[in-house]
């Protein structure tokens, strides 16, 4: 029940209609008996600054930040955690007495989603598609865990900027095209773009470049067309729901200071996915 004491948590995104975060968090709040409510906000690029200022004006306790705002939001915050600053992207904001601090829980969320599926990272080679905020967090997470990365983006300069940012962490190389000479070197391919969010989106990679030995990961949820094609080929497929769950667990703990009810959040996510 919403009262005058209810603390509001939200998500700023464009688009936002697909988000499963409200279901996950509201179920967790209810399970722990917390007077919190998580709501979605459709925030377009031109209104991001106003939306961030509104967090203070409306006394919103915290928000998630997702596509396409993870990088642009940084300049409007009072503080940024060292890890989020290093990654160059924020996906979680805490409003602590009108001080807005940004965090990145995506890197941890991605790594835990792989470990939960028994996918090895150390000494393995990854191809990451994309160069936005999610890609930065994923590349950072892989390198910190001892993996190696090839990165591709349509705008080569953005991929090169990621290489420069993280080159001191381990092996990272930019590729200008994706063909079999690239995909045959790697064990895991990660779509870190938003392609697949919309039904008419093109696939981020030709299925012909996949082989059954590949692990295919996608940050988009639920199942995309390329995920279905990868499954037909025999790839082990990991959708964006794993990363969604584990980044949500970390964000929940930042906002509440309490241990997240992981199993409740996982059951809720599975339930909404099967509707």
TrEMBL record:
Binding site for NADP(+): 82, 130-134, 153-158, 219, 240
Coiled coil location: none
Reactions listed under catalytic activity: shikimate + NADP(+) = 3-dehydroshikimate + NADPH + H(+)
Keyword Methyltransferase attributed: no
Active site: 70
Signal sequence region: none
CC annotations in GO: cytosol
Key words, A-Z: Amino-acid biosynthesis, Aromatic amino acid biosynthesis, NADP, Oxidoreductase
EC number(s) on file: 1.1.1.25
Pathway terms, separated by semicolons: Metabolic intermediate biosynthesis; chorismate biosynthesis; chorismate from D-erythrose 4-phosphate and phosphoenolpyruvate: step 4/7
Molecular function terms, GO-annotated: NADP binding; shikimate 3-dehydrogenase (NADP+) activity
Residue ranges of domain SDH C-terminal in the record: 240-269
Biological process per Gene Ontology, one example term: shikimate metabolic process
Enzyme class, first EC level, given as a word: oxidoreductase
Keyword Translocase: no
Stretches assigned to the Shikimate dehydrogenase substrate binding N-terminal domain: 11-93
Family: Belongs to the shikimate dehydrogenase family.
Function summary: Involved in the biosynthesis of the chorismate, which leads to the biosynthesis of aromatic amino acids. Catalyzes the reversible NADPH linked reduction of 3-dehydroshikimate (DHSA) to yield shikimate (SA).
Protein name as it appears in the record: Shikimate dehydrogenase (NADP(+))
């Amino acid at each position: 029940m919403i009262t005058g004491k209810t603390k509001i948590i939200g998500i700023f995104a464009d688009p936002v209609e697909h988000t499963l975060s409200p279901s996950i968090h509201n179920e967790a709040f209810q399970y722990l008996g917390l007077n919190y409510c998580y709501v979605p906000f459709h925030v377009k690029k031109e209104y991001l600054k106003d939306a961030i200022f509104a967090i203070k004006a409306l006394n919103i306790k915290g928000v998630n930040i997702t596509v396409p705002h993870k990088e642009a939001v940084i300049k409007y915050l009072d503080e940024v955690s060292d890890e989020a600053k290093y990654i160059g992207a924020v996906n979680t904001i805490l409003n602590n007495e009108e001080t807005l601090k940004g965090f990145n829980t995506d890197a941890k969320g991605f790594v835990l989603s792989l470990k939960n599926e028994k996918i090895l990272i150390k000494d393995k080679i990854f191809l990451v598609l994309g160069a936005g905020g999610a890609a930065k967090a994923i590349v950072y997470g892989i390198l910190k865990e001892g993996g190696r990365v090839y990165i591709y983006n349509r705008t080569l300069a953005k991929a090169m900027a990621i290489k420069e940012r993280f080159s001191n962490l381990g092996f990272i190389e930019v590729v200008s095209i994706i063909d079999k000479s690239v995909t045959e070197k790697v064990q895991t391919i990660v779509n870190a773009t938003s392609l697949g969010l919309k039904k008419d989106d093109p696939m981020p990679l030709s299925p012909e470049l996949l082989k059954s030995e590949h692990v295919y990961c996608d940050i988009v949820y639920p199942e995309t067309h390329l995920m279905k094609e990868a499954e037909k080929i025999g790839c082990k497929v990991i959708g964006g729901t794993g990363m969604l769950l584990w980044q949500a667990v970390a964000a929940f703990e930042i906002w509440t200071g309490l241990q997240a009810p992981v199993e409740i959040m996982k059951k809720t996510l599975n339930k909404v996915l099967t509707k």
